[in-house]
Design a protein that fits this description.
With 256 residues, the protein is an alpha/beta fold. It has one domain: 2-enoyl-CoA Hydratase, Chain A, domain 1 (Alpha-Beta Complex). It has a six-stranded mixed beta sheet with strand order 1-2-3-5-7-9, with helices on both faces. Strands 4-6-8 form a three-stranded parallel beta sheet. Helix 1 packs parallel to helix 3. The longest helix is centred in the middle third of the chain and has 20 residues. The chain is globular, with a radius of gyration of 17 Å. It starts with 7 loop residues before the first strand and ends with a helix.
Length: 256
């Protein structure tokens, strides 16, 4: 099985109405197109499920939250439409989070890169450990954080987003991410983080669903044009990924 075909998205709903979505991939929880599609679909479906009161979004393992785009899939793209479709997968996940009427709590246990930072930015309330440093590495491989950019900018502001986007090879610490507003709280261990997530999700499960739905609408005011905006951004990346510069840069990264 190729890396493009590996990975999974699972979910469960407990008796309190707390839905937990977990995605995983053996390559540091990277996101091939199939996983992106399943993740967006799962978020959308749980948002429509009356049994669900709140959603927790997490990834598998202990070390990495999400390595972003699958390099194996990026290097396999040979035409514009395929590239646009792949990057639209990230757009669909972000828009699924945005449109979901349920509040989404993020659990970031380790490093987040590129699209992983986008996912962390698209949730409504994000917990992290002290190991959850962040990096927008897209420019280093000849692309740019075009699709995730609006979500990251909305969360941490243009100045901090541009810092990440321009200095594309440098990590910023979890403390930095908390200071900028990406993370609401950071913890010394995953166990402490999970206890805090359980406490908050239980509180929200007992809150008025309609009040939470309306509150989320307010949080995301001004993003109604994102369906088209993120498609346009996906097209930018879909074109750039075909360039010789990007192909050579991705191959160099894969050899490291």
């Amino acid at each position: 099985m190729s890396a493009i075909d590996e990975g999974y998205v699972n979910f469960d709903i407990n008796d309190k109405g707390i839905a937990t979505i977990e995605f995983g991939h053996p390559l540091s929880n990277s996101l091939p197109g199939k996983i992106l599609h399943k993740l967006a679909t799962t978020i959308t479906e749980l948002g429509k499920d009356d049994k669900v009161k709140v959603i927790v979004l997490k990834s598998a393992g202990k070390r990495a939250f999400c390595a972003g785009a699958s390099f194996d899939e990026l290097i396999s793209i040979k035409d514009f439409e395929t590239g646009k479709t792949f990057f639209s997968g990230f757009a669909n996940v972000i828009n699924a989070c945005r449109k979901c009427p349920k509040l989404i709590i993020g659990r970031v246990q380790g490093k987040a890169v590129g699209g992983g930072v986008g996912v962390a930015s698209a949730v409504d309330y994000c917990f992290a450990t002290k190991f959850a440093s962040v990096k927008l590495s897209e420019l280093a491989v000849g692309i740019g954080p075009f699709v995730v950019g609006p979500a990251v900018q909305r969360k941490i502001g243009m100045s901090a987003m541009s810092q990440l986007a321009i200095d594309a090879t440098e990590w910023q610490s979890a403390e930095w991410a908390k200071e900028k507003g990406l993370y609401t709280e950071i913890f010394d261990s995953a166990t402490e983080m999970d206890n805090a997530i359980e406490t908050l999700s239980n509180k929200l499960a007992n809150s008025n669903p309609e009040a939470m739905r309306l509150l989320k609408q307010i949080f995301w005011e001004g993003t109604e044009h994102w369906d088209n905006l993120l498609k346009e951004r996906a097209a930018m990346s879909g074109k750039l990924v075909l360039s010789d510069f990007t192909v050579n840069a991705i191959n160099a990264f894969k050899k490291k």
